[in-house]
Each structure stands twice: as C-alpha cells, then as structure tokens.
Design brief:
The protein has 153 residues and is mainly α. Helix content is 75%, strand content 0%.
C-alpha cells in the first residue's frame, strides 16, 4: 500500500499553475491595468478645489455612509485607499473566485476528478496544492499591482 502525503504535492501545485496560466495572464493585465489607470488619474482628484467644495456641500451622514473622507482626497495614499483599493479588492476577489470554481469544474468536465483521487496524494494534499497555487498567484498579482501603484505614485 502506498504512503499518502498530507502536505501539498509540489508537482500538483505546478500542474495547477500551468492549468491556470491563461486566466492568470488575463487577471494580471486587468488588475494591474486598472490600478495603473486609477493611480495615473490621482492628479485629477488631489488638491482639486472644486472636488473639495463638492464634498464639503454633501451631508456628513451620506459621506460617512459611503466611507468618503474629504481629507483623504488631499494625499496620494488617501486617494488610493479609497476607490482604487475597492476596485482592486473586487477584481482580485472575482478572479480568485473564478479560478476556484474553474479548477473544480475543469476537473469535472475533463473527467479527471476520479483519476485525481487515485494518485498517491490524500484529499487534503490535493486541496492544499490547489490552495497554494491560487493563493500564490493572487499574492503575485497583488504584489505587482502594489508595485505599479507605488511606482506611479
């Protein structure tokens, strides 16, 4: 009887990364491109007297309800912590969900799910392999996106 591994199987992680290659490229282009575009637009919002006047005329309750802090529109860090960061979280979360669902459905469509569980890997090892691949990829895209924002800021 073969010994079953409980840790992530690194060949399985590499295989999962290879399977996610196209989706990762699309996600990187979209997320990094959106962050670069929003970071490049920051000068339109920073120290804009008209924007400050508009935000000053809005009711305080509405600003608090939407999480808008007028003083944050005066620095680059404040601007990126608002709208661009929200878009970043939504986009990366969407792509992460898409990768997870795609990973499962890909196994079902190709009818390799049954074969996957015949390998000398435990179910938890297969799960952790997929988790490592998805988390590593999301972290890599997040780091590249943060680097682009800091470079443009």
């Amino acid at each position: 009887m073969a010994m079953r591994s409980n840790g992530p199987g690194w060949p399985a992680v590499k295989f999962e990364l290879r399977q996610m290659r196209r989706g990762a490229i699309v996600a990187a282009i979209v997320v990094i491109g959106m962050q670069a575009m929003l970071a490049g637009m920051a000068h339109l919002y920073l120290d804009n007297a008209e924007m400050e006047r508009l935000l000053g005329s809005m009711p305080q309750g509405m600003l608090e309800g939407f999480g808008i802090h007028p003083e944050s529109m005066t620095t680059f860090e404040g601007w990126t912590s608002g709208e661009p960061f929200t878009f970043f979280l939504l986009l990366l979360g969407f792509f992460g969900m898409n990768w997870a669902v795609g990973s499962i459905s890909r196994e079902r469509d190709r009818q390799t799910a049954e074969f996957l569980f015949t390998l000398p890997l435990s179910r938890s090892s297969i799960y952790w392999s997929k988790w490592c691949a998805h988390t590593g990829l999301a972290t890599l895209i997040a780091a590249a996106s943060a680097g682009i924002v800091l470079l443009l800021g």
